[in-house]
Amino acid sequence: MTQRAKFSAIVMAAGQGTRMHSDLPKVLHPLLGRPMVSFPVSAALEAGAERVVVVLGHGRDAVSSSLAERFDGRVVSALQEAQRGTGDAARCALPALEDIDGRVVILCGDTPLLTSGCVGALVDRASAEGAKLAMLTSVLDDASGYGRIIRDGEGHITAIREHRDCSEAERAIGEWNPGVFCVEAGFLRATLDTLSADNDQGELYLTDLVERAAGDSRVAALPWPAADLHGINDRNQLIACERILRLRQAEALGRAGVTLRDPEGSFIDADVQLGRDVTLEAGVQLRGKTRIGDGVHIDVGCVLTNVTVATGTRLLPYTVASDSQVGAGAQLGPFSHLRPGNELGDGVRIGNFVELKKIRMDQGSKANHLAYLGDGDIGRGVNVGAGTIFCNYDGVMKHKTVLEDGVFIGSDSQLVAPITIGKDAYVATGTTVTQDVPSEALAIGRARQQNKAGLATRLWQRLRAQAARAKK
Ligand code: UD1
Ligand code: CA
Hints:
Number of domains: 2
Number of strands: 36
CATH superfamily of the largest domain: Spore Coat Polysaccharide Biosynthesis Protein SpsA, Chain A
Structural class: alpha/beta
Strand content: 25-35%
CATH architecture of the largest domain: Alpha-Beta Complex
CATH class of the largest domain: Alpha Beta
Largest sheet: 21 strands, parallel
CATH topology of the largest domain: Spore Coat Polysaccharide Biosynthesis Protein SpsA, Chain A
Bound molecules: uridine-diphosphate-N-acetylglucosamine, calcium ion
Number of helices: 9
Shape: elongated
């Protein structure tokens, strides 16, 4: 395969998106956890664009900071003060492309299904045909609303006519303009300044470039399936497009060795990474920058946000975790809750109704049932019994609990932080620990039990008699 010709890209994203009925700019609405506009930008970059200029208008600050965060220097913003049409939007990008030669691909910010393969194919078609202008074309039974592609008697494209400017006969044309162009930089610069707003909307139409290019050369056309070209104007289209992206993603994961038991009901953000031999049961949600190692099994209903899980770990049903790291061969759940800031070593076990926050726990330690552990440093081979509470908060400040290697914490103990339990120490069940426990010591702090012979029988009699009197 010969090397692809040099090109840059313009992504037009200044429009308001009124039909979203949203305070969030349309192009920032997320699909697979990524802002809409990042999809066409990524498609252009992955196809090899040297530079991508995004034209901003509505919500410009939010959009430009979102782009900066995701793409740093490879994407630059241009500003379109007033939305005077797609021709004007493209013109606003030109100063950012002054030093560029080759071709410029022009895309819309609201078409997240467009792939890098499609962008690349359009650039290749333009250079193979030496075309000033190449465009995608597509066909629908009813292309209402879209610009229609006008061809001459020999089948060459001569113009694009917007729906509202079309004659009755032209409205019957099913071939429509997806709005993706690849234009020679020189021709683009020379032509964009000369567009007129002589149309029904009084806007500057980018599509008028087609008629100009057709005047003295041939417009190259690349037919493409409409399924990849859907644009988003409202929330229903947003959800429909996200669904298509999820099914594409599920297929790619399947090819990469991931078993996704319920592709329709699982939500995996685009930036999540999954290893080989990972199995996801139904209703799993993996968000943000979650990383899942080889051979991990994630059971029904788990929700992980920015969590790293190492090889071979099992997450039992309904484990909820965020901003945490989990070692290899560990087991979490069912119903474990990891709040942010945990670092759990290899082979740890966290069981049902255990809540963790900012806990470092070394290899092989366990908290299997009903516990709150917050702000703690737990060594190796520690066993935290059922009902243990790290009392980390005094109402004003948070304090730390340290459990050294080999510690045993009996059930229903409260550890009042700041506190340190030394290596191999033992805290007896039901102890409220308020002083540090030295290494190898036994801490026991509870009232002594007394057994009173026969007293239970007398107690029963008294209680039953009381109940009988109350009934009368
Ligand atoms: C445009 C095309 C139409 C095509 C359709 C495909 C023109 C004149 N028409 O129509 O032929 O079939 O797309 O979806 O180009 N934008 C700006 N600044 C503006 C105006 C628009 O940045 O001043 C951006 C919008 O944010 C959007 C894109 O350009 O991302 C397309 O604009 P939109 O108004 O949706 O174009 P259509 O009228 O749908
Ligand atoms: Ca419009």
